[in-house]
Amino acid sequence: MSKRQSVTTVTSVTRTPNGDGPKGARTANSRRTGEGKEDGSGTSAQPGTAVTPTYKPTPQEMSALAAHRERRQARAPAPSIKVEKKSGLTLDHPDVATGSALLMEAVGTTSVDFLQGLLSQLVNAASKGSELDEKSTNFMLSVVKGIGPKDQVEAMLAAQMAAVHMASMTFARRLNHVETLPQQDSAERALNKLTRTFATQVEALKRYRTGGEQKMTVEHVTVNAGGQAIVGSVTHAPGGGGPHKDEETTS
After folding, report:
1. How far, in whole angstroms, is CA 112 from its chain's centroid?
2. pLDDT for 167-195, tens place per residue?
3. How far apart (Å, rounded) are the C-alpha atoms in residues 181 and 173?
4. What is the pLDDT of residues 118-151, one digit of tens each?
5. Where are the domains of the chain?
6. Read out DSSP for 164-201?
7. CB–CB of 249/221 below 8 Å?
């Protein structure tokens, strides 16, 4: 009779506060058999199997990771949304009131009605036919949150920018898969209009945030005794003549 191997199943493991298991303990549902040996990470390493070492970031990567953490900590938290067929649109937050307040702050509004309407519009714009697309909806929402609207006008403009960007990428994909010349012309015209519209929206947002004011730079010119300073534009006369003064001079 062959010697039977012993099998032990661990159903629970007590972990230390830092998330690591106690020394010598194995993860839940691990098995010990007569074959293989424990590799120290809680799993059984099969004979001849190499253990993948833990990756150590380079100094440049560590610096980039630190900068990334600072940016995440500086940004106010705002939940994503879940799109389900039965329950519809819900916030990915354990408390609905807190999640709604955080999301309203992220899109620059204090109105629940505005938030619900904006989210519904984003869902419809991101939908593919009759199917709701949760990933595309959260992408568009992340665009709105990333722009950082200060009021409802900026939030609506940010939502439009997200929608125009989505449409631009759609026609960019179509342009890359055309089969006929009319298809190429149609996709090219649509993509050109959409990208121009997006650039116009960016300029509109800048003008709205600055109140439509234009910056004017005033330069001070020192005129010594016996000298002259020309105020305004200077054009040269044809034939290499001297400058023609369009504005008055001061002495």
Report:
1. 24
2. 999 999 999 999 999 999 999 999 999 99
3. 15
4. 999 999 999 887 788 999 999 999 999 999 999 9
5. 73-210
6. HHHHHHHHHHHHTT--SHHHHHHHHHHHHHHHHHHHHH
7. no
